[in-house]
């Protein structure tokens, strides 16, 4: 570890990311004194952690690790209530709190009486998160919590974490080796290089747009430009509303492509002027909610080159043509 | 006889080869026979039984239950009960020791075969090994380290257990202990314990050597990591 | 099968003799003695070996001691050790015999306790410290419950050893069921030898069964995985 200095702002997710051997886990473990820093200081709310008795310090900081680390000899509910028990809460209150948290992390309360080995990896990891939140600590440390589960479960755990964070606003320090996970979860991302030096600390979109050096650029990998688009809003995208036609329409149009819409306003397919008898596939996005990346992806899915803007109920609100997308992309490229 | 009790070395030298059946040399030979035979028997019994248990899983539960019971039987009463079948012979000690050995080795064989990675087994199948070839050329060699570890335990404990046989007059070097107790005299005890420990160490060293020769890849892997 | 007949005759003779059921040489007395000596040796051994194994496993200091005792203990001839202690200390009390019993009972408990603690998943240890458990709490609330199956296995192996060695110790004058076997053999009273042997075997199996029961009662179902997965 060499001259690493960063700040994890209150209520935000700060992600430490880097190749193995970059000291990201070590840095994380210095915060709750699982490892003591030989030099330098770590401040928690302005108080140096080196001055706090480690167990006391750790009871006030949630800690989630890769394999969940659940106690195999205790039922799920008692696993979640571990820190409340340590803090001397009465049993009933601790268990009530544990049940509340199980629900909060999306677990069936019926699992409370099971033992860890009876749960799937993804469920165990949710219990791990619930356990870390049990005593309502303001700070959470998460050490590669989702890297041992399969990609589908991982995605759902990530979404769950973002949803939880929007409710709880914890100060989270999250360690991962997966740059995509870092970009998805982080309010700010710290890229570390081997030896524990900070290569760049920035918001994800800044990271993608302006990597500080070759190391960061390489670490970010392929498709940096495309991935950046996920931080560009589609709210300002110019939509045309004159390119739709009702089902059964058989007239002529000056436009080469028309979007056929059913009676409830939902898209059916693209009708080409060249072959009016067949309907071609279409792609949709929700303006304002989905990113420019989704809008562009929707356009690429259709031979028309246009993407269909729909509302949350799936009704067509307009069409983003290639021109409109071009314009938006040009703006995005300018920063 | 000199003045006072003889020293350890003196006593050893005088009793090493008296020509009688209870000379240290003869006791040592008996001891080696009575411990090596059960070790070999245990292996001969445990290999096929272990293979069968690994092949037909339903066999394992009852077999290991039975072996647990066998292992828990105290040696002296078992020797005594054997007398009514085999008389006061070396067999009376050898047969129970072989059973104790098998009780340790059968689980070792099963564990060893379980430790063969499934991808290795699968690729052997895919390359067209017949079941027997696969067993001999792939599975047994890979199971060997675990089996040999079990064999080391069996060898050392058999060597020390033989001495209990002295209480029925068939204990190899254990005879030195009963002799020492009958006419209270320390040197035979010391010599007996020392020789038994030495035998155990030699047997263990030989098995470690066998392990290195039979499974060279185990050491090579350790060297690189 | 003549030996089966002879065997059964001896059993009937031994268990049918009312004199064998009373007095200082009666079966109840000898059984109780065997239980007392075995239990005493086992408890003393556990009092030494469990804390030592926990300490070495938890701190990682003194591992050499475990390896050496584990290897040496198996090679030590029990009869030799018993005779040596009796010759050294005389046979005035039971202690010259109990001491080697304890010494022989220590290694299995020590080794298995140590292995049990060492074998606990490092992630579990990490999680326990990370949540703010203190060293003693990590040991008592997490490591011991998780390592309990191995600790009990060690105790069970020691109990097997102690019951067997208590029998052998009858040779050096200790009471217990071994008396029937040793004295019967010396006087060619085979009814006594066979009856005593059967009693000892039953006793050993009973002890084995007792430990299996203790394991079921004390080990968390989450550790033994006795329940269905889902």
UniProtKB/TrEMBL annotation, chain A:
PROSITE patterns: ABC_TRANSPORTER_1 (PS00211), ABC_TRANSPORTER_2 (PS50893). Its EC number is 7.6.2.9. GO terms for molecular function: ABC-type quaternary ammonium compound transporting activity; ATP binding; ATP hydrolysis activity. Residues 1-220 form the ABC transporter domain. Keywords: ATP-binding, Nucleotide-binding, Transport. The keyword Transport applies. PANTHER family: OSMOPROTECTANT IMPORT ATP-BINDING PROTEIN OSMV. Belongs to the ABC transporter superfamily. This is ABC-type quaternary amine transporter. It comes from Nonomuraea maritima. The lineage of its organism: Bacteria, Bacillati, Actinomycetota, Actinomycetes, Streptosporangiales.
UniProtKB/TrEMBL annotation, chain B:
The keyword Membrane applies. Residues 28-208 form the ABC transmembrane type-1 domain. GO terms for cellular component: plasma membrane. It comes from the Bacteria. It is found in: Cell membrane; Membrane. Its main location: membrane. InterPro entries: ABC_transp_perm/SBD, MetI-like, MetI-like_sf. One of its GO terms (biological process) is glycine betaine transport. Keywords: Membrane, Transmembrane, Transmembrane helix, Transport. PROSITE patterns: ABC_TM1. The chain crosses the membrane at residues 32-54, 66-87, 93-113, 142-169, 189-210. It is a multi-pass membrane protein. Belongs to the binding-protein-dependent transport system permease family. This is Osmoprotectant transport system permease protein.
UniProtKB/TrEMBL annotation, chain C:
Keywords: Membrane, Transmembrane, Transmembrane helix, Transport. Gene3D superfamilies: MetI-like (1.10.3720.10). The chain crosses the membrane at residues 37-57, 94-117, 138-171, 191-214. One of its GO terms (biological process) is glycine betaine transport. It is found in: Cell membrane; Membrane. GO terms for cellular component: plasma membrane. It is a multi-pass membrane protein. Residues 31-211 form the ABC transmembrane type-1 domain. Pfam families: BPD_transp_1 (PF00528). InterPro entries: ABC_transp_perm/SBD, MetI-like, MetI-like_sf. PANTHER family: GLYCINE BETAINE/L-PROLINE TRANSPORT SYSTEM PERMEASE PROTEIN PROW, POSSIBLE OSMOPROTECTANT (GLYCINE BETAINE_CARNITINE_CHOLINE_L-PROLINE) TRANSPORT INTEGRAL MEMBRANE PROTEIN ABC TRANSPORTER PROZ. Belongs to the binding-protein-dependent transport system permease family. This is Osmoprotectant transport system permease protein. It comes from Nonomuraea maritima. The lineage of its organism: Bacteria, Bacillati, Actinomycetota, Actinomycetes, Streptosporangiales.
